[in-house]
Amino acid sequence: MEVSSNGQRSIYCLRHLNPKIFKCLATLLVLLIFRVILFPTISSFGRIEENGLVVVRNLSPLYGSDFGIRVDKFLEVPQIVWGLNNQKIAFARACLTARMLNRTLLMPSLSASLFYKEVERLEPISFDKIFRFEEFNSRCNGFVRLGRYMNISNRTKPIELSKGSGRKWTIERDLEQLEEYSKEPFDQSEVIRIVGKNPFLWHDHWPVKDYAKVFECLVLVDEIEKEVDKVISRIREVGSKVRSKFDSDGTVVQSENLLQPVPYVAVHMRIEIDWMIHCKKLEQRSKINQICSSKEEIMNRVGNILGMKMPAVVYLAVADSLLNDSSILKGWKEGLLPFEKKKLGIDKIYKKYPYLIQSAIDYEVCLRADVFVGNSFSTFSSLVVLGRTQKLMKTGVVDLCDTNLSWPSYAYNILGDSNGPRKWISNMSDTNLKNISYGSNDTSCGKSPR
Ligand SMILES: *[C@@H]1O[C@H](CO)[C@@H](O)[C@H](O)[C@H]1NC(C)=O
Ligand SMILES: *[C@@H]1O[C@H](CO)[C@@H](O)[C@H](O)[C@H]1NC(C)=O
Ligand SMILES: *[C@@H]1O[C@H](CO)[C@@H](O)[C@H](O)[C@H]1NC(C)=O
Ligand SMILES: *[C@@H]1O[C@H](CO)[C@@H](O)[C@H](O)[C@H]1NC(C)=O
Ligand SMILES: *[C@@H]1O[C@H](CO)[C@@H](O)[C@H](O)[C@H]1NC(C)=O
Ligand SMILES: *[C@@H]1O[C@H](CO)[C@@H](O)[C@H](O)[C@H]1NC(C)=O
Ligand SMILES: *[C@@H]1O[C@H](CO)[C@@H](O)[C@H](O)[C@H]1NC(C)=O
Ligand SMILES: *[C@@H]1O[C@H](CO)[C@@H](O)[C@H](O)[C@H]1NC(C)=O
Q1: Same domain for 31 and 79?
Q2: pLDDT tens, 142-174?
Q3: Distances 138 to 71, 126, 141, 220, 415 between C-alpha atoms, Å
Q4: 169-217 pLDDT, tens digit each
Q5: Of ligand 3's atoms, which has the minimum distance to the CA of residue 71?
């Protein structure tokens, strides 16, 4: 409403170049300033200059059909499977495919459990059991859109789009196919159903920033969010106990420090046997010998992080198979106090849920940690760092590799300054998600602080 009256006013100004012009212009200016303040990211007005007079035109609605995705055309995709990261990437890829076809994505099924290969045993779980549906659409408004099956009118039969496979099915052919399906005669069909492989296996056509936009719209449902809060407050609680213990031990704690919560460092420690086998193979194949880190190397490097405030709680995000391995709790530098789910007494929280939700909680705990240390060849770690980089960019910092920033992230498998782990941010201007998420020894931050 505001916008259209704004538009009318500008037309009024144009037509009536009379002595009242100053008043009119002033009003317009005030309205403009308001708009810029209220909606700084949306530049929906074009400016034309006529006789030196700046005229605002084309004031399209902020949200709605002009920018939006069609609400009456849908894309249906196969069930999304495998690990949390695979599912998030696959989901974003499905969204971006729907965007390219200018269609609403029918809310896909995710998978609660993790059975590789045996797709028929994958327990489907609705997207909105994990992430907030309305919140997704409101955050991603104008970019991508989710819809529900009940909103299909079923007037026409869905058109099936079968993605090719094999060596001959190149990224170019895949793109051509999508372009073909965004034109007549397919464009008018109410539903296009993609059949075949899960979206994680489709060819990728989008830059990192598009994926990041979709990820930003994913907000956990309240129930899971509450569990995340419980886990984090338990970690903080342990931290404050640690501090009072340190105080009574006579350790000098500066009074300003007393007011701040004890920081927690989340370490995504990948040392379980499955990973070790995988990473050794990867090292051979890629001829990079910085992929596997031993327990000792991880502990050492985390202990050498410059400027780390002590004491600090170290939250070990580890695979379940390591929860009974007490050796991961020993050998940390003094002042670093390691905890895993069991020692924190929060394994009960996790046990209530299937794999996917457990993983989503751990992701969030790592995302919100004061410091995060992960493996740059792990997709989980990479997506955490992507989320943290976005968070950092929101604060307006320019040099994301500055060693003094809050929420730093590091890769323990790459040597950084002072024998510590290498500072790590995601390159948001990368043209390909694969470059930053499927494993790389490039952490976008040089050896010495820049
Ligand atoms: C989608 O279609 C609507 C309505 O036809 C159009 O206004 C909008 O620009 C299109 N969006 C994209 C991303 O192509
Ligand atoms: C259209 O079909 C879907 C199932 O494919 C169903 O959920 C939906 O309710 C149907 N819509 C109408 C309007 O009948
Ligand atoms: C989808 O269907 C529901 C229930 O009929 C309705 O409340 C909602 O407005 C519909 N949404 C759209 C975008 O058509
Ligand atoms: C990454 O690996 C390549 C190949 O082994 C090597 O040349 C390069 O120096 C490594 N980069 C870093 C940051 O260590
Ligand atoms: C850890 O040990 C306990 C008892 O020894 C056992 O019940 C539990 O299943 C084990 N957990 C894992 C993840 O191995
Ligand atoms: C970080 O902060 C410390 C002390 O506040 C300062 O000495 C140092 O120069 C800073 N480093 C950078 C890279 O800004
Ligand atoms: C980020 O990616 C862009 C595009 O690939 C590249 O030009 C740039 O050098 C990269 N930046 C860093 C810091 O690696
Ligand atoms: C990122 O991926 C693109 C496309 O696959 C490639 O051309 C580019 O060289 C890659 N950039 C880096 C830094 O690896």
Answers
A1: no
A2: 999 999 999 999 988 999 999 988 889 999 999
A3: 14, 19, 5, 14, 41
A4: 999 999 999 999 999 889 999 999 999 989 999 999 999 999 999 999 9
A5: 13
Q: Are residues 331 and 400 in the same domain?
A: yes
Residue whose token pair is 């106990």: 241
- Same structural domain, 60 and 31: no
> Is residue 417 lining ligand 6, measured as CB closer than 6 Å?
no
Same domain assignment for residues 270 and 355: yes
Region class of 291: left (phi > 0), else alpha (psi between -120 and 50), else beta: alpha
Nearest atom within ligand 7 for CA of residue 432: 5
Is 361 found in the same domain as 240? Answer: yes
Structure tokens at 349: 């929280």
Q: In terms of residue numbers, what domain contains 360?
A: 222-437
Residues whose beta carbon lies within 6 Å of some atom of ligand 4? 287-288, 414, 441
Q: How many domains does the chain have?
A: 3
DSSP E strand stretches across 42-121: 46-50, 53-57, 74-76, 104-106, 109-111
Predicted TM-score (pTM) of the model is 0.83
